[in-house]
Amino acid sequence: MLALTASARIYLYRGSCDMRNSFDGLCGLVRSGLGADPLSGSFFIFLNRRRNLLKCLYWDRDGFALWYKRLEKGCFRLPDQCASDGRIDRLQLTLLLEGVVAKKVSRRYILDK
Fold it and tell me: Roughly how many angstroms between the first and final C-alpha of the chain, as a whole number?
């Protein structure tokens, strides 16, 4: 599992991605599709068209790291709410990775950003 801090920035690429892409191809999608810098330390999430494959690209101090997950059954379900720039929070990523489909998720309080 990924070790995410509370300050981690996570971006979800909403289009489908060719999973043959590796570090350089995914960095190109980050720059062109999300308008972000892959060296920023953020986590970038990519899904294939069938949504049974997921890749996570991030910069890890001295190089890129790639985390990959393949589902044997079912598919990943995208979060209903996502920022216009593709940003999601840790809870949304956890629900995505664990396959939890929440009917309603609410917070006790809202933090000012």
Answer: 26
Q: pTM for this one? A: 0.84
Place of tokens 């690209």: 57
Give the integer Cα–Cα distance in Å for 83 and 21.
25
Which of these, 53, 52, 12, lies nearest to 33 by C-alpha position?
12
CA distances from 84 to 11, 13, 46, 70, 87 (A): 10, 11, 16, 27, 7
Tokens coding 12: 């979800």
SS3 95: helix
CB 45 within 8 A of CB 12: yes
Mean pLDDT of 11-20: 92
